[in-house]
Amino acid sequence: MPTLFSRSAWFSHLRGDVLAGMVVALALIPEAIAFSIIAGVDPKVGLYASFCIAVVTAFAGGRPGMISAATGAMALLMVTLVRDHGLQYLLAATILTGGIQIVLGLLKVGSLMRFVSKAVMTGFVNALAILIFLAQLPELNPGVSGVNWITYTMVAGGLAIIYLLPRWTKAVPSPLVCIVVLTSLAIGFGLDVRRVGDLGTLPDTLPLFLWPQVPLDFHTLAIILPYSLSMAVVGLLESLMTAQIVDELTDTPSDKNRECRGQGLANITAGLFGGMAGCAMIGQSIINVKSGGRTRLSTLCAGVFLLVLILVFGPWVRQIPMAALVAVMIMVSIGTFNWASFRNLAVHPRTTNLVMLGTVITVVWTHNLAIGVAVGVLLASLFFARKVAQVIRITSTREGDCRTYLVRGQVFFVSADTFLAGFDFREVLSKVVIDVSQAHFWDLTSVGALDKVILKFRREGAEVVVIGLNEASATIVEKLAVHDKPDALERMLEH
Questions:
Q1: Which of 91, 102, 113, 130 is packed most tightly, with the most Cβ within 10 A?
Q2: Tens of pLDDT along 349-404?
Q3: 3-class SS at 404?
Q4: How many CB atoms lie within 10 A of CB 116?
Q5: Mean pLDDT, the chain, whole residue set
Q6: How far apart are CA 166 and CA 45, in angstroms?
Q7: Cα–Cα distance measured from residue 138 to residue 133, given in angstroms and rounded to the nearest whole number
Q8: Which domains does the chain possess?
Q9: φ, ψ of residue 397 in degrees (nearest 5)
Q10: pLDDT in tens, 192-216
């Protein structure tokens, strides 16, 4: 991976990065305004946050070419805080969110991404694609002022430009051409369509350093800590999942732990300059990659162009028809969805499909990415544990009054019952040998199952010998087992 200040980290894809940054900046404006409205704050709070987060993550993030800004997932978490306590407490919570994320980054929680299965990733991507598409429907609702047949025609024309232009030339990103052409038509013909300016007022000043005006005491901490913890976890989860997707799109690696720290620093900066908390945005990240963005320069350009657009070209930006941005986001939705997952339903194992569908349904139903991914990971873990538990095998041979049991597989809380069922306690034996050289004991439940087997055979008068314990299993058995304690058999008989 290129170092932060190397030329390849910034200027190896100069033209593509600059053009991609322009496209992303245009797409960020309505999103930031909409998320500010969701959170119950002034549009400038989301716009300032998007600028600060994009610029800081360009330098401090661990995934070049990924776009981070104010997001809907984070906005939903702060609604109650803003309603009950106001903007200043939101700014304080944003700073604390960043601090928590830096700590989590130092604890290397980014490494936990390896526990997220491919099925969960596919479900996450598909759910986001659906949510991105559903988010465009209000802009296509004929009951909304400014939405009419012209809107639908412009969306169709925008999609035609996006998908047909690359057949002739890829010199300029087709989404940028779509936005420029449709904006020119809307202004030139004075079309009656819904525009960016209809969403809210754009700021006309630079963001200023602003320390939150809240009491620095434990009462304030008690108010903001629950919100900050939730935002820190959701923000990192969405950022790390998005980084994984961009890794696959660009076939390049990223530093997940550095990304955690970078997101934290970005949120602290946003809070100090009047912005709300944010995280990585999969939609804008995909726009960036598909428009040619690859290095840190594309992320920096997105943030800088965003500020330039709202401060210098504000009057023109207000005239951008929402239909143009809807067309771009529909393209993102189509490009994000894993269409091969439909074909794979007939090929992949049923458990894999259930994990993917469970993730999709939960995310779409709750609109909470953290809950959806948590459900997917939980399902994947349960199915994996069940599969591993079914692998355990116990065979036995008898020589006279001695029976030898050979245990193969992993013994833990799921497979403990299978382990117990593999022994016949009705036989009259003088000696029982339990060979566990091909097994592994993982937890208290597995050690308890071994205790139960040994004590049951002893109760029937048999001598029990356990052989083949590996070092790790021997350590946990020695620490947790009770069968060697003097009163173990007596206590078992009592129960």
A1: 91
A2: 899 999 999 999 998 898 777 788 889 989 988 888 777 766 788 999 999 899 99
A3: strand
A4: 18
A5: 88
A6: 36
A7: 10
A8: 8-342 (no CATH), 350-388 (no CATH), 390-494 (3.30.750.24)
A9: -135, 150
A10: 899 888 877 778 888 999 899 999 9
- In order, the DSSP letters of 95-129 are HHHHHHHHHHHHTTGGGGGGGS-HHHHHHHHHHHH
pTM exceeds 0.85: no
Provide the token pair at 338: 């894993």
Scan for tokens 């029976």, then name that residue: 403
**Could you please report the per-residue DSSP string of 44-104?**
HHHHHHHHHHHHHHHHH-SSTT--EEE-HHHHHHTHHHHHHH-HHHHHHHHHHHHHHHHHH
DSSP state of 201: P
Residues 42 and 48: beta-carbon distance below 8 Å: no
Q: What six digits make up the tokens of 286?
A: 């995909």
Contact residues for 338 (Cβ-Cβ < 8 A; gap 6+): 122, 125, 126, 129
- Most confident listed range (199-203, 292-296, 331-335, 385-389): 292-296
Dihedral (CA of 24, 26, 27, 29) sign:
positive
Q: 160-194 burial, b for 16+ CB within 10 Å, e for fewer?
A: ebbeebeeeeeebbbbbbbbbbbbebbeeeebebb
Contact in structure between 72 and 35 (CB atoms under 8 Å):
yes
Q: Closest Cα to residue 50, out of 20, 17, 72, 78?
A: 72
Residues 432 and 463: beta-carbon distance below 8 Å:
yes
DSSP letters for 284-314: HHHHHHHTT--SHHHHHHHHHHHHHHHHTSH
Over residues 286-305, the mean pLDDT reads: 92
